[in-house]
Design a protein that fits this description.
The protein is 53% helix and 13% strand. It has an eight-stranded mixed β-sheet with strand order 3-2-1-4-5-6-7-8, with helices on both faces. The protein folds into two domains: 3-156, Rossmann fold; 166-256, Orthogonal Bundle (ProC C-terminal domain-like fold). The longest helix has 22 residues, at 238-259. It is an alpha/beta fold and 260 residues long. It is built from eleven helices and eight strands. The two termini are 32 Å apart. Helix 6 (155-164) packs across helix 11 (238-259). Bound molecules: NADP nicotinamide-adenine-dinucleotide phosphate. NADP nicotinamide-adenine-dinucleotide phosphate binds next to helix 1 and helix 4. NADP nicotinamide-adenine-dinucleotide phosphate binds at residues 6-7, 9-12, 32-35, 38, 66-69, 71, 75, 91-93, 110-113, 164.
């Protein structure tokens, strides 16, 4: 499969890393990128960087639109101007298919940065789920993790808030842990490595026992320290804090679409 990324920032590079890690040859990945710093990084990875006009002469199975929402509609029009028969996957948050000039030739996706490690979760939606390109998009994202096919496009907003953006909320929680731990362990030179083990250990524990209640019960004892902390989280309504963050991100996703 020959793919071309238009816009090669955070998410495109995570996908490219994941694809290469999965065994895809870097020669089947092409990049279009305007930011010179990123162009340099791509070339250091031995990736081919071309101009937009190359879309007219090279035959790509899929063009992956991975620019910020503010640039998306212009870039999409440019793609179809240069290569009208292109099949495009957009990873852009918020913007609904009907905002694009050619919605029938576009597949919406919402990956997350764990695609870099083959552990991504990606939602896919298109007007026609039975097209050859939709199957190709499914194959592409399966190389870098799991794929959810959404029946309703509007569910993309909620998916974005939980999986696309939501990863960052857990990182934010862990950042708070790190600050607290640093206060008592800052003289330890292996500190970051130790904390890394704490974080990856959480994943290992979940892989071994994929049930949060059981995992919590293994740590908690009645009247103990864990119970005291958990009761404090409940009293401060941790659940509402997260639900409110999901709601805010979902609303922003809807707003982004309406702003176009
Ligand atoms: N980051 C994530 O975890 C994530 C997850 C899922 C979806 N997304 C979506 O992915 C999109 C990209 O996010 P990102 O974080 O990867 O952004 P980013 O790091 O800013 O990357 C976008 C890149 O595209 C370049 N660009 C913009 N228009 C271009 C054009 N017409 N031709 C060539 N290059 C162009 C930008 O250059 P300049 O620097 O000059 O603007 C920038 O280098 C967003 O719409 C976001 O909603 C992101």
């Amino acid at each position: 499969m020959n793919v071309c990324f238009l816009g090669c920032g955070n998410i495109a590079q995570a996908m490219i890393d994941g694809l290469i890690r999965s065994g895809v040859s870097s020669s089947s990945i092409t990049c279009i990128e305007r930011n010179e710093i990123k162009v340099k990084l791509l070339k250091e990875k031995n990736l081919k960087v071309v101009e937009l006009n190359n879309l007219a002469t090279e035959n790509f199975d899929l063009v992956i639109l991975a620019v910020k929402p503010k640039d998306a509609l212009t870039a999409e029009k440019d793609i179809f101007k240069v290569a009208p028969s292109s099949k495009v996957i957009t990873v852009v948050a918020g913007i609904e298919l009907n905002k694009y000039s050619n919605p029938n030739s576009i597949i919406r996706s919402m990956p997350n940065t764990s695609t870099a490690f083959g552990k991504g979760i990606t939602a896919l939606y298109a007007i026609d789920h039975s097209s050859k390109e939709f199957n190709l998009a499914n194959d592409l994202f399966q190389k870098v993790g799991h794929v959810f096919t959404l029946k309703n496009e509007e569910d993309m907003h909620a998916f974005t808030s939980i999986i696309g953006s939501g990863q960052a909320y857990l990182f934010e929680a862990l950042r708070i842990y790190l600050i607290e731990l640093e206060k008592i362990a800052s003289d330890n030179s292996d500190f970051k490595q130790i904390f890394k083990n704490f974080v990856t250990g959480l994943g290992d524990a979940f892989s071994n026992e994929p049930d949060f209640e059981t995992l919590i019960n293994k740590i908690k004892s009645p009247g103990g320290t864990t119970q005291a902390g958990l009761e404090s989280l409940e009293k401060n309504d941790l659940e509402s804090i997260f639900k409110e963050a999901f709601r805010a991100a979902k609303n922003r996703s809807i707003e982004i679409s309406n702003e176009q």
